[in-house]
Amino acid sequence: MMSDKSASAYWAANIRLITICLVIWAVVSFGFGILLRPLLSGIAIGGTDLGFWFAQQGSILTFIVLIFFYAARMNAIDRDFGVNE
């Protein structure tokens, strides 16, 4: 069993990781795909502009990378706090 101090440190680390992942996801999907699309329209990638690419594929690929990043970091946090499987 974890102490109260250890449990709150564990949840703080967990919430910090979730916040980082959500901010990255929001910046890539909403920021690059929608808000910054006009600025990215002059950069060509794969036959289309970069803003369109982020809106259609980049945000999905970033989300998949974030899933694996979250799993790896959460496993490390679990090991650090002794709650791993």
Automatic annotation (TrEMBL):
Membrane-spanning ranges: 20-40, 52-72
Domain of life: Bacteria
Keywords: Membrane, Transmembrane, Transmembrane helix
InterPro entries: Na_symporter_ssu
Sodium symporter small subunit domain residues: 8-84
Record-given protein name: DUF4212 domain-containing protein
Organism: Pararhodobacter aggregans
